[in-house]
Write a structure and sequence with these properties.
By secondary structure, the chain is an alpha+beta fold. Helix content is 38%, strand content 19%. It folds into 2 domains: 8-75, no CATH class; 88-165, 2-Layer Sandwich (Alpha-Beta Plaits), CATH 3.30.70.
Length: 167
């Protein structure tokens, strides 16, 4: 099993920060060194500003990614996807986050979605952070606001530490 190995950036916290930013946002690193959100070009200066680093840090991060075969294989294939979390209220959807007891545990998504299915709630989107990230969480967008009784049901699942209702 391959996990995103950022050991290349050990001792280089700014580059590590940029690499994680690119990965989490799905920003692709092209073979020519360009950055892309799907087919839209992303300026180094924009990435630098968001991460409070100099553009040269972004450039050196991209160079390092392209020189590492495993990282290159990952970063050249990244894609940006739709995230309904912020627009859920306008669409009439409900959103909640699950803070897991152990993010690397198995069955978290199935337990949560099973509880939603038992309540007859349709799921519009599920976004699960990889356990390698700091404070990973599961965000669920459902067809309507979360009923209060469902919060208690979810909190009683063995995999759930906390529920945060966002809408």
């Amino acid at each position: 099993m391959f996990m995103l190995d950022l050991s290349l950036f050990r001792g280089k916290p700014s580059q590590r920060k940029v690499a994680l930013f690119l990965f989490r946002r799905g920003i692709r690193v092209a073979s020519d060194g360009g950055l892309y959100a799907n087919d839209l070009s992303v300026a180094y200066s924009s990435v630098a500003k968001i991460n409070s680093v100099d553009s040269r840090v972004v450039k050196s991060t991209v160079k390092a990614v392209l020189e590492d075969d495993k990282l290159r294989a990952v970063f050249e294939r990244l894609r940006v996807g739709v995230d309904l979390r912020e627009v859920a209220p306008e669409l009439g959807f409900g959103v909640f986050m699950v803070i897991p007891e152990d993010a690397s545990g198995r069955g978290i998504i199935s337990q949560v979605t099973g509880a939603l299915a038992k309540e007859g709630l349709g799921i519009r989107q599920v976004v699960a952070d990889d356990p390698m990230f700091e404070d990973p969480q599961l965000t669920v967008v459902i067809e309507k606001r979360i009923p209060p009784k469902l919060i208690d049901v979810l909190l009683n699942l063995s995999c759930v530490k906390k529920i945060v209702v966002l809408n």
